[in-house]
Amino acid sequence: MSEFLKIDHLSFTYHSLEGETPALLDVSFSVNEGEFLCVVGPSGCGKSTLLSLIAGLLTPSSGSIYINGKDIKSSGKNIGYMLQKDHLLDWRNTLKNVALGLEIQNKLTESSYIQINEMLNTYGLITFKNSYPSELSGGMRQRAALIRTLLLEPDILLLDEPFSALDYQTRLEVADDIWSIIRKERKTAIMITHDISEAISMSDRLVVLSKRPGTVKKIFDIKLSVENRTPFTARSAPEFKDYFNSIWKELDSNEQKK
Amino acid sequence: MSKKSKKISVDSLNVSAAQKAFVRKYLLKKRRIRIYQIIILVSFIAFWELGTYFGIVDPFIFSSPSRVIKTIVEMAMDGMLFYHIGITLIETLISFALVNLIGLAVAIILWWNDSISKVLEPYLIVLNSLPKSALAPVFIVWLGNNMKTIIIAAISVAVFGSIITMYSDFKAVEEDKIKLIYTLGGNKKDVLFKVVLPANIPSMISLMKVNIGLSLVGVIIGEFLAAKAGLGYLIIYGSQVFKLNWVIMSIVILCFIATGLYKLLSYFEKKYSR
Question: Is-above-0.95 flag for pTM?
Answer without folding.
Answer: no
